[in-house]
Amino acid sequence: MSASTPEESRVSDDVCTPDALLHTAPLGDVTPEDLVMAAGRDVTPKTLDWARRKLESEGTAAIEKLLP
């Protein structure tokens, strides 16, 4: 059994996934808890206040900046 090089293991018709397919948009309302968790923070009263302010100023775009 021979080892293949990275070039040999690539499919010849390798294509990139379109950017629009890599991003997800929220299907419903984004909650402050959603935003806190997407930011990788613990859900605490302080982080929930931060998330509420961010959602008020940026809307659902706030979570889209954190998630791909």
Average the pLDDT over all residues and give the rounded result. Answer: 78
What is the helix/strand order? Answer: HHHHH
Label the overall shape. elongated
Number of strands: 0
Helix content: 40-55%
The number of helical segments is 5
Helix/strand-derived class? mainly alpha
Distance between the amino and carboxyl termini: 39 Å
Q: Any idea what the radius of gyration is?
A: 19 Å
Please state roughly what percent of the residues sit in beta strands, choosing from under 5%, 5-15%, 15-25%, 25-35%, 35-45% or over 45%. Answer: under 5%
Keywords for this entry:
single chain; about 70 residues; mainly alpha
Give a structural overview.
By secondary structure, the chain is mainly α. The protein is 49% helix and 0% strand. It is built from five helices and no strands. The protein has helices spanning 6-9, 19-22, 32-38, 45-58, 61-64. Helix 3 (32-38) packs across helix 4 (45-58). The protein is elongated and about 50 Å long. The termini are far apart.
